Structure formats: C-alpha cells, structure tokens
Amino acid sequence: MRTSAHLPRAAWIAPLLLVACSGPAAERGPETPKATVTETPVAPPAPALTADSEAPKAESVQEDGAKEPEAVVDNRPRMGAVMPFAYIYKRPEVKGLALGYVRTGTSVPLLDDKPVAGPGCARGWYKVAPRGYLCLNYRTTLDLNDPYYKALASVAPKDEAYPYKYAFSNGAPMYSRVPTKEEQAKEDKKFGTRGSYVQLAEWSKGHEELLTTEPIKATDPIPEFFAGGKRHVGGGNRDTKRLLWRVIPNGSMVAYHKAFEAEGRVWLLTSDLMLVPADRVRAVKKHTFQGVKLGSGVDLPLAWNRSHDPKPLYKKGDDGAFVASDRTYPGKGYVEITDSKVKDKDGSVYYELREDPGFYVAEKHTTVSRAKTTLPQGVKPGGKWIEAKILPGTLTAYEGTTPVYATLFSPGKGGLPVPGHDHTKYATTQIGYFPIEWKDRVNTMSNEKGEPKVLWFSDVPNIQYLKAPLAMHVAYWHQDFSNPKSAECVNVSAYDGQFLFHFTDPPVPEGWGGIRPGDGNGLSTPVIISAQ
Fold first, then answer.
1. Which of 101, 215, 340, 350 sits most deeply, having the most CB atoms within 10 A of its CB?
2. How far apart are the first and last CA of the chain?
3. Exposed, middle or buried, 346 (CB in 10 Å: 0-12/13-18/19+)?
4. CA nearest 457: which of 475, 439, 441?
C-alpha cells in the first residue's frame, strides 16, 4: 500500500507512493486469550531524554521530609509542522536522504534556538533533538501558540494502538466548515438519502466486516475554531474558502478525532481539520485480537485457533480414538502445547496441552508458533529480529534466540509467491531477509500515485517498510489474522502493530513522525519472511 504523500526523491528511500496492502478480511469472534485470559496491550516505553535534551526536574518536600521529584518541566524550544512532511536532514541543507520528518500538528524539541545558515532555507536551519536539522519555512513554525498550529495539534495522533477512530465512507463529502442547513440540503442531493449506502463489489467485503451500522454519536463539544458555523483558522495550502473541499469515495476509510453536533447533525473532525457528516459513514469496530508477550508464564510452542469460532479440546477414548470433549478454546485464541505430534487411528494429528495433560487440540484447527533455536545469518547474538511465516500465518519477535512476542498476521491473499511473478500484481508476500528501511508513526495509504482520489485508508498507524512497497503495518479494517488477506504486505492487528513498532530499531525520536536507519539513526531490525 502506498503512502499518500508527496515525498521528494532525496527524502525517501522507498519509491514514491507505496503500493496498497489491503485485502479481504473477516470479523473475529471472542477475545484472543490463553484459555479465557486476554493479554493486555503492551504500552510503549516513554521517550528517553538524552544528555543534550534532558529537562530539569523540580523537587518537592513531603510531610515526612523526604523529597520526591515533581513532573518533568520541559523548557526546550520546539519547532512545529503546519503542513505534511517537514523533513529533517543530516546537515543544514536539502541534500541526500532525509533522516525523518515532523508530522502536521506535532513538534520536535530543538537543541539550539538559534538558526544555522544553509542552502535552500532563507529563514535558517534549526538543530533538532536528537540529531539533524529542520528548516524554518512555510511548512514549519516556531510559534506553537499560533491558532492554526494549535488547531492542528488538537487533532494530532496519540502514541496509542488506535491514534484515531475510523469509519468507512459510503460516499461522503468533506467540508471546510459546518454548512448551514440550506447548504446541507443542496449538497445532500449529490449523495442520496442520509444513512444509505451502496454495497460495493466482492473486492470490498474484506474491508467491511468490522463495520457497524449503529449511528455515530456526538461525544465532544464544537471545536472553538468552528464555533458559530465559521472556520476561524487557515488551511495551510488548502482552499478553505471552498465549502466542499473533496469527496471521500465509497469504500475509502476516514480517520476522525472528535464527533460533535451542529446544525442538527453529527460531524466528524478529521486529522486535516475537515468535517465529514457522520450519517455518510459507518464506524469501524476496534480489534479484539492481539498477540502475547512470552517469558512471563507463556512460552512457545503455542497452538492458535485459526478460525473465529470456538473449537473443541479432545480426549482419548477407551478405544484410543480421539473424541471431542465439552471443553473448547476460543476463536483466534491459543493454548500452550507440547511439540510432539500424536496421531489418531485415521492419521489425524493432535497436540497435547502442556498445562492440561490429557487434553488435545486437532492440528486441522490450528496453526502453531514454534521457537527457532539458531540465529539466522546476519543477526548478531542478542540482536532483535522478527520471523513471519506465510503458510502458518505466524509472526514471532526475538532477542537473539529468545522469543519475546508471538502473534498471527495476514500475508498476501495470492498465496505463496511464484518466481518471476510480480508480487503486487498477484497479491503475494515476498520471501526474504528485509531490514526495516523506513518507519511511519501514522500515514494515509493508497495504491494511487499522487494525492489519492479513488481509494485510500486514512491515517494507518505503525507502518514499517521492509522493501517498498512491501510493508509490515496495521490493518484496522480486518482481524482475520493468520489467513491470507493482504494485497501483498504483512498485516497485523492494531495492538500488535504498536508493540512491533516500539520493539524494532531504529526507534522513532520524540516528535518525529517517521525515520529511516543509518546516518546516526542506528541500524534496523530485520524481518525474515519465509514460506513456513
């Protein structure tokens, strides 16, 4: 899936506008437990402060006389972005590949508040933490109290598994302000009856099975910058004087930050400060599936239920044949097993539960996560790496030979790749050794070059490009993980994507929206994709 960004050639190690990695999906059933225990999403560590950037800590005295540190006071100067992709370069010049970028509505701490002269930046370059230079130009600002920047910052993505709420467009207008009832009536003629939708073709079903038809309710007050039916802030490079800014085609995904009521209707506030009527979209339900941290009571091998439906645990009958018991394990859930196979009289294979001897799972219902005992070539002892297996649909993160996280992922729906066949055309996931080449905290994805107009997926979180257009990224539109669903990429759940994004190197510094390895950013974690 391609990012819908205009990326200068010098700034981006991957080809422009990366190829789409979405595909059919199905909604899962119960949670993803070991038996009935759900693993809590792993929270990412707080950004570390370097010696250059550490903020001073104030101290207070408790009643017993002991001192305790108060909240960290960060007085570092910052530069914010008011347009997409404010690029950070290694030196104060637009030359070579960018180290990373700052996303609209976010800011990066500066190591020095004085500009540095350099070509291509009349107002000066500023040294950012922890490295690199950012130009003060039409994309950036030093005034974080500017009303337009503050409005953008109010809808900036949070560092969470779900940085936004998501919805599926039924063919929806995007307005630059709240239209009057008269203006709404005029525009509604173009979109049909409110709340209606046209069922798309087979290709879209995989994007629709997490949808709900329940109306999206207003949960927030009207933003100040839209008070009184007017728009009180600018629009960067966009013509905000035009009421209908663009149309979101039927089948595209919308990311929104707030939902509020005005002029008798609920409106969704998008990450680019546009408004979408809630009755023109259907909400996307959040994932319930996620993987499991290993080494704290859960260890490999694990047998995962590949379907959404509960499957029985088996016992051996008096005649030695396996029979289903009245116990089950949930759809997409896992159980810990021994690694030895037991065959039934008919040749069927079963695995015995490690913590519950005498009970078994049928191989036909499961896919198994097993630990590697040797390091792959190119990985140093103790080094991080990720293994993704296409046919089993399993993904395991390692530190050296120690597995630390196990989950399921969805590979390309075209099955195993065929030598000589294009992976994008045939929707197959490429096999090989892929050091991560770029990381995006949040970005819109599409299969179109330039600004997307036909189909896009707004603000996909935790994208990691392996060999563009191949990426490992969150697929918030489905959760039938372990089964082939992608157009080409490694699809993971929102919670797994968050863990993997923070697990891999290079880490994304505070305030940066994206990063590439090298030039001081550090080496990258390899992802090894195999058939099985």
1. 101
2. 24
3. exposed
4. 475
DSSP 136-177: -STTEES-TT-HHHHHHHTTPPPSSS-SSEEEEESSEEEESS
Strand order in the sheet with 78-81: 107-109, 78-81, 140-141
Q: Distance (Å, rounded) from C-alpha 272 to C-alpha 274? A: 6
Q: Contact 288/28 with Cβ under 8 angstroms?
A: yes
Of the chain, the percentage scoring pLDDT greater than 70 comes to 86
Strand, coil or helix: what is 181? helix
List residues bridging with 335 in a β-sheet: 303
The answer on pLDDT for 23 being more than 90 is: no
HSE at residue 353, side-chain half, CA atoms within 13 A, is 20
Are the C-beta atoms of 235 and 243 separated by less than 8 Å? no
**Worst-scoring range by mean pLDDT, 48-52, 124-128, 300-304, 408-412?**
48-52
Q: Which positions ≥6 away from 397 have C-beta within 8 Å? A: 384, 385, 386, 403, 404, 405, 406, 499, 500, 503
With 0-12 / 13-18 / 19 or more C-beta atoms within 10 angstroms meaning exposed / middle / buried, residue 67 is: exposed
Taking CA atoms, 519 is separated from 46, 437, 506, in Å, by: 23, 13, 11
Residue written as token pair 């009349």: 122
Using an 8 Å Cβ cutoff, are 99 and 131 in contact?
yes
Q: What is the pLDDT of residues 69-96, one digit of tens each?
A: 677 788 899 999 999 899 999 999 999 9
Backbone φ, ψ for residue 203 (5° rounding): -60, -25
| Residue owning tokens 């995006």 | 440
160 Cβ contact list (under 8 Å, min separation 6) = 498
Helix (H) or strand (E) holding 188: helix 181-188
Angle, vertex CA 491, rays to CA 486 and CA 494, nearest 5? 140
Q: Does the pLDDT at position 239 exceed 90?
A: no
Q: Is 330 helix (H, G, I), strand (E, B) or coil?
A: coil
pLDDT band at 65 (very low <50, low <70, confident <90, very high): low
Please name every residue paired with 2 in a beta bridge, in sequence order, or none if there are none. Answer: 446
What string of DSSP letters covers 345-387? Answer: TTS-EEEEESSSTT-EEEGGGEEEE---SSPPTT--TT-EEEE
pLDDT in tens, 417-457: 999 999 989 889 999 999 999 999 999 998 777 778 889 99
Q: What angle do CA 207, 209, 213 make, to 5 degrees?
A: 110
As a whole number of angstroms, the distance between CA 139 and CA 105 comes to 11
Residue in this structure with the two tokens 């839209």, named with its chain if needed: 226
172-181 core/surface letters (b: 16 or more CB in 10 A; e: else): bbbbbbbbee
Q: Are strands 360-362 and 322-329 parallel, antiparallel or unpaired?
A: unpaired
The CA distances from residue 361 to 64, 88, 343, 405, in Å, are 58, 52, 12, 22
264, 270, 273, 276: CA torsion to nearest 10: -40
Helices (H) and strands (E) in the chain, counts: 4, 38
Cα–Cα distance between 132 and 126 in angstroms, integer? 8
pLDDT value at residue 3: 54
